[in-house]
Design goal:
The complex is a heterodimer of chains A (302) and B (633).
Chain A lengths: L7 H19 L3 E4 L4 H14 L8 E4 L6 H14 L3 E4 L2 H5 L8 H21 L3 E3 L16 E4 L27 E4 L7 H11 L10 E8 L2 E4 L14 E6 L10 E4 L5 H10 L17 H7 L4
Parallel strand pairs in A: 1-2, 1-4, 2-3, 4-6
Antiparallel strand pairs in A: 5-6, 7-8, 7-9, 8-10, 9-10
Helix pairs in contact in A: 1-2, 6-7
Chain B lengths: L10 H10 L2 E8 L5 H11 L5 H14 L17 H6 L6 E6 L4 E6 L7 H8 L4 E7 L6 H12 L4 E7 L8 H14 L7 E6 L23 H7 L12 E3 L2 E6 L2 E10 L7 E4 L5 E8 L13 E6 L10 E4 L5 E12 L10 E6 L2 E14 L6 E2 L9 E14 L6 H4 E5 L6 E10 L15 H7 L5 E6 L6 H14 L4 E5 H6 L9 H20 L3 E5 L5 H10 L5 E6 L3 H7 L4 H6 L21 E3 L6 H14 L5
Parallel strand pairs in B: 1-3, 1-4, 4-5, 5-6, 21-23, 21-24, 22-23, 24-25
Antiparallel strand pairs in B: 2-3, 7-9, 7-13, 8-9, 9-12, 10-11, 10-13, 11-12, 14-18, 14-20, 15-16, 15-19, 16-17, 16-18, 19-20
Helix pairs in contact in B: 11-17, 13-14
Chain lengths: 302, 633
């Protein structure tokens, strides 16, 4: 590519690689949050590139809420084995003991206990001083405001009104003991960029992203997949088999499917360009209350 | 108009089309209430890039927080994403939005207008190619317009759109527009803007944002989006010689040693000669490694790993550069800084400085001036408060490699970090190195200190004698050197009085001169040690900090401090040169021990007591120490 301008995706890729290397060089104990979705898959792919031919100089962390799609867990384990990765799995056992679940406790409480608290427990237990996350600025309004190196205090809280200025590519990686930085290497990627990159790099993603006949129920305006026997089916609900796919992946009872026949990456890109709702619409946890993402982030959510 | 319609044909064609587009990084700035957030909302809305659920949210947000009265959408709420922003109706921090048209992809950074949040505006500017500076047509140019224009220029933005907004509120009057444009052109006359396009707009109603709208028939220039799609900003990093800061040393096993980083400027290919800027060590590039295979050439912005044909010492922080076009290397620089700390800048206090991947300690030694925002005049200043801009000299704990910011944004920018709070307190742009060492590059020599020492059958070191005048330093050093000579060792004796007759004859005995005296001796000692000699240094050297400086110039175990611990009464009795008499009589000023302090060493390697034993015995003791320490092979 000598003398030529870098293509859009190459430019984004190089920017992300620079961020990965900077963190590996500057922090004592980084970790990568791995949530198995398409963004995590892209993030992992970029990290592997950043350190090639070396192996990843940090482990992956999956905060397992115990309510992920079964296929996600299988995909996770297969990926870790295939790439020879060091994966830490953490579950908030206290939450499990208390029987916290998305049906009886409401999505907000459930998310707080099993995701946010679980994450904070894991970060504290291992003493990580930097944690990569796959969030993008185009996802949501408060994310659009967040730095690439996002400082968190001892309680993992984000203070959006007092963020460190982030100048040029000169990231301030200095933290005191107990404080940490959340790092977002995909900050400047859009949903379309992610799909284009998956297509051009042939990145493996869970098949849940591709349309297929799946058992779903209609609940609160969303199509929820009945992924295992723990799903309580209300008397007035009917389990139908519909051809659907998922735009984002999370805990299956909280992730809405969309009717779709897109079963290849090319068709997904086409659908993404024509779609009329934003990606996070399928995330039930984001619509609980106004400004809920900012609130969750202040509490330590990714 | 080339607005993408979201109705794609075939996914793969779209993939290719999207990837070929270039990206323009735009920021909006200007005073509070000039309509920056509304303008970005308008761009997103009119280019039909908003999703249905986002419009639903916007509709309900407008009912709750809207400031536009009866309209369905308050477009500013699209970008003011923080709760506090929506409640207060202002922008606090930069929001990054992305959109694309048929021609280009855009990153838009919406910077806050309040003076309090100027640092966030600078954050946005540091990664932008073009600035849209908004002005309210009713109020015209305000202090923040000036400040933001100056900062945009200082940070190197060369393309500016002056968007005269709310033109609807002055009845689309051409005269008002012309007045504002004329005074703005006068204001920025001295700035180095390459393009300046003035456009009358109404962000609220959309005039001249993506379509003319018919209310300004007197304006025949481009609409905002049209201009943004077509302006040529050039490839900033493509020109200039090769520069790459080493971020991370890539060493998967003993067979592979690579240096990972992102190319800041220039191009390289295997076989090119590069050098490490700070040491002058050079080698040729063997391979340019990436996960997608080795490259035959790489250019600006590419994240690569370089392997070399020779094993030279390279670590994180080193700047790899073209051998024939080297950067400055200096430990003193002059730079513009924008102060961002809550606490004021304190000249003399040390801060952490990050420049590329180099981190050093920096002190502002002299604040030359502060920039007055009203007329951009240089004002005298003792300090800088938050959001003030100044020009200063900085002294660094060790040399860094850099280019002037105007020549290379990547290698000429730095940040300052408070050492206690870890806050980023300043953005800096280097103008030049103060040592003016541009053409004095460290020459890498093939014969090393080790080789020179070994040839002489010894390990080079410095025996630093410190103590009061008359304490016996020179006497012992003299005896010791004779013994070393007799044993076939290669030595040199630097004596305080003798050096003051030559190298340091321009120096007196004030504290400032004493510090310089020892600095020169320290450097001279370093050269002699480098030559492989056992150097005997006999100087009063009264201050701990300067002895520490001399110690720091050498490697560990090379500096042997010998304290001649003779009480001052004994020294006065001896008074071999009659100096104590003169000093006590007041005929000799600044005499150590009389009217100038002596700070005794806390942990010298050797202490000698000249009141009990002879110079000859003491010299034998030191000789034994050298033998035990392996200096005499």
């Amino acid at each position: 590519m000598s003398g030529m301008q870098q293509s859009h995706l190459k430019r984004l890729e190089a920017e992300s690689i620079e961020i990965f290397r900077e963190v590996a060089a500057e922090f004592q104990k980084p970790v990568m949050l791995y949530s198995i979705g398409k963004d995590s898959s892209v993030m992992l792919h970029l990290a592997m590139k950043a350190f090639y031919p070396s192996k990843l100089p940090f482990p992956l962390l999956h905060v397992d809420t115990t309510w992920k799609f079964r296929e996600m867990i299988a995909f996770r384990d297969e990926t870790v084995a295939r790439l020879g990765l060091d994966l830490i799995i953490h579950t908030n056992e206290d939450g499990v003991a208390r029987g916290v679940n998305p049906f009886d406790h409401g999505s907000a409480n459930y998310t707080h206990v099993m995701k946010t608290e679980g994450l904070k427990q894991a970060l504290d237990t291992y003493g990580f001083d930097a944690a990569f996350g796959g969030a993008r600025r185009d996802e949501e309004k408060s994310r659009a405001k967040e730095r690439i190196f996002s400082f968190r205090d001892k309680n993992h809280s984000w203070d959006p009104k007092n963020q460190r200025p982030e100048l040029w590519n000169l990231f301030n990686a200095r933290v005191h003991k107990g404080e940490s930085i959340r790092v977002f290497p995909l900050s400047n990627w859009t949903e379309l960029d992610i799909w284009q990159y998956i297509a051009s790099e042939n990145i493996a993603i869970p098949s849940l992203y591709f349309a297929a006949p799946r058992p779903v129920v209609q609940r609160d305006g969303s199509l929820i997949m009945v992924d295992d026997e723990r799903f309580p089916i209300e008397p007035d609900e009917v389990v139908d088999t519909k051809t659907v796919r998922f735009r984002t992946l999370g805990c299956y009872p909280l992730t809405g499917a969309i009717p779709s026949s897109a079963d290849t990456v090319g068709k997904i890109v086409e659908e993404t360009l024509a779609i009329k709702s934003s990606e996070r619409q399928g995330r039930l946890i984001d619509v609980d209350e106004a400004g809920s993402m900012e609130k969750k982030k202040r509490e330590g959510y990714f | 108009m080339n607005v993408s319609t979201k109705q794609g044909s075939a996914g793969n064609t779209i993939l290719a089309d999207q990837d070929m587009k270039d990206t323009l990084r735009v920021m909006t700035c200007g005073s509070v209430d000039d309509g920056k957030s509304t303008l970005i909302g308008r761009l997103l809305y009119d280019t039909k890039l908003l999703f249905d659920d986002q419009l639903d949210t916007l509709r309900s947000d407008t009912e709750k927080h809207g400031t536009t009265g009866d309209e369905e959408f308050d477009l500013a709420l699209l970008v003011d994403g923080l709760q506090a922003e929506r409640e207060q109706g202002i922008t606090i921090d930069v929001a990054y939005r992305f959109f694309s048209t048929g021609k280009r992809k855009f990153t838009i950074a919406d910077a806050p207008g309040h003076e309090q949040y100027t640092r966030n505006m600078v954050t946005a500017a540091s990664n932008s190619d073009l600035a849209i500076i908004l002005v309210d047509a009713r109020t015209g140019i305000l202090t923040q317009t000036r400040r933001h224009s100056y900062l945009a220029s200082l940070i190197g933005i060369r393309h500016v759109v002056l968007a005269v907004n709310k033109i609807d509120l002055v009845d689309y009057a051409q005269e008002r527009f012309d007045d504002i444009v004329a005074s703005y052109r006068g204001l920025v006359d001295q700035f180095d803007f390459k393009t300046l396009q003035a456009i009358p707009i109404s962000a609220r109603y959309g005039d001249n944002v993506i379509e003319p709208g018919g209310n300004t028939p007197w304006y025949d220039g481009p609409c905002l989006l049209d201009f943004l799609e077509n302006v040529q900003v050039g490839l900033r990093r493509d020109k200039g010689p090769f520069r790459m800061a080493v971020q991370w040393v890539n060493r998967p096993d003993s067979d592979f040693r690579g240096y990972s980083g992102t190319i800041a400027s220039g191009h390289v290919k295997p076989g090119d000669q590069i050098v490490v800027a700070k040491t002058g060590r050079g080698a040729a590039i063997s391979k340019i490694v990436t996960a997608d295979g080795n490259l035959s050439e790489a250019g600006p912005g590419e994240a690569i790993t370089i392997t070399l044909d020779d094993e030279i010492d390279i670590s994180r922080g080193d700047l790899l550069v073209a051998a024939d076009a080297r950067p400055d290397v200096s430990d003193q620089v002059a730079a513009h800084i924008v102060w961002m700390g809550d606490e004021e800048l304190l000249p003399g206090r040390s801060y952490k400085m990050k420049c590329g991947t180099q981190t050093v300690t920096a002190t502002v030694t002299e604040l030359k001036h502060r920039i007055g925002i009203d007329n951009f005049r240089e004002l005298a200043a003792k300090t800088l408060n938050m959001n003030e801009i100044g020009f200063c000299n900085l002294s660094l704990s060790e040399p860094i490699a850099f280019d002037a910011y105007k020549d290379n944004r990547e290698t000429g920018a730095f940040i300052l970090i408070d050492r206690l709070t870890n806050a980023t307190v300043a953005a800096g742009m280097i103008s030049f190195g103060l040592r003016r060492a541009t053409n004095i590059h460290v020459q890498a020599l093939d014969i090393s200190k080790k080789a020179r020492s070994e040839q002489k059958g010894q390990r080079a070191c410095a025996l630093w004698f410190t103590g009061l005048s008359g304490s016996g330093k020179s006497t012992i050093a003299n005896v010791l050197e004779k013994k070393l000579q007799a044993a076939g060792r290669h030595t040199y004796l630097l004596d305080g009085d003798n050096v003051r007759h030559g190298l340091n004859r321009d120096l007196g005995f004030t504290d400032v001169d004493r510090v310089e005296n020892i600095r020169r001796i320290g450097e001279t000692t370093k050269l002699f040690v480098d030559a492989g000699l056992i150097v005997l240094v006999s100087f009063i050297s009264p201050f701990r900090s300067e002895r520490q400086m001399a110690r720091d110039l050498l490697e560990k175990d090379e500096f042997i401090e010998i304290y001649t611990e003779t009480p001052i009464e004994v020294c006065q009795q001896r008074d071999p040169k009659g100096l104590y008499k003169k000093a006590i009589a007041g005929d000799l000023k600044n005499f150590t021990g009389i009217d100038s302090p002596y700070e005794h060493p806390e942990n010298p390697e050797i202490r000698v007591d000249t009141t009990e034993r002879s110079a000859d015995d003491l010299a034998d003791d030191i000789l034994a120490h050298l033998k035990d320490g392996g200096y005499l092979v």
